[in-house]
Amino acid sequence: MDISVKDSGQSKAKDVEQSLRKKFKKTIWSKFTKAINTYELVKPKDVIAVCISGGKDSMLMAKCFQELKLHNKFDFEVKFLVMDPGYSAENRKRIEDNAKALNIPVAIFETDIFASVYHVEKSPCYLCARMRRGYLYHFAQELGCNKIALGHHYDDVIETILMGMLYGAQIQTMMPKLHSTNFEGMELIRPLYLVREDDIKAWRDYNELHFLQCACRFTEACSACDNEENLSKRIEIKELIKTLKQGNPYVEGNIFKSMENVNIDTVVAYKQNGKKHYFLEGYDREEP
Hints:
Blueprint (H helix, E strand, L loop, with lengths): L1 H20 L3 H14 L8 E6 L3 H16 L5 E8 L4 H13 L4 E5 L2 H5 L6 H19 L4 E3 L4 H15 L8 E3 L7 E3 L7 H10 L26 H15 L3 H8 L10 E4 L2 E4 L10
Parallel strand pairs: 1-2, 1-4, 2-3, 4-6
Antiparallel strand pairs: 5-6, 7-8
Helix pairs in contact: 7-9
């Protein structure tokens, strides 16, 4: 019986891996490797903590890194890290079962983040996100890692751009990699930066996989179901993009590329290294 279950798990993992090499080679694998190369996310001697939340994005990222290890042209290491911020027993088991079925050797460490922020009235989500990031850096560093990899994808990037403009009155993007300001020598990388969310969903559904939709304590009741409709600003932005796309099929690509085509000569003010600059600083010194 045990042998049968083990063989079944290995077969599932192999099918998922084969789908990345074949069916989703163009839409997922090629874009994953393009991001790795374009933004220089993985370098020789790196030890990368692949951070798994239990959702479709981070699980896919883990499988892509396993595939990358099979084809890597230089030496680097990956460690698969799961932080339990206080999951319910059901959600914790879902993560463990998926990791086992997909042959992902995860290291799980526990925190009490959910309990710490549960009764915080002002910006609990912001505090939770900061605490989770800090714990991930800390434990990754303890494991000898110099980078943490998060599963943010292309759609997260363009939604962040619009959210910043419409709700934050600022122009900024989600960067493909960042140096940590609090953990010396550590970096954050986003290898799914060029991968579309619809393609991730297609990969999930094709392989009949069932991941956590939301692991937050505040919405835990729906975290194991297939309902992704949560009232939030991000959902509003998704709908806005969907509407805009009906009139302009290139709108998503244009939003993404706009962050690579910023013309400082036409910007009234901007920040660099924390200092704000105005166009008037050099205006009178310019020749007509």
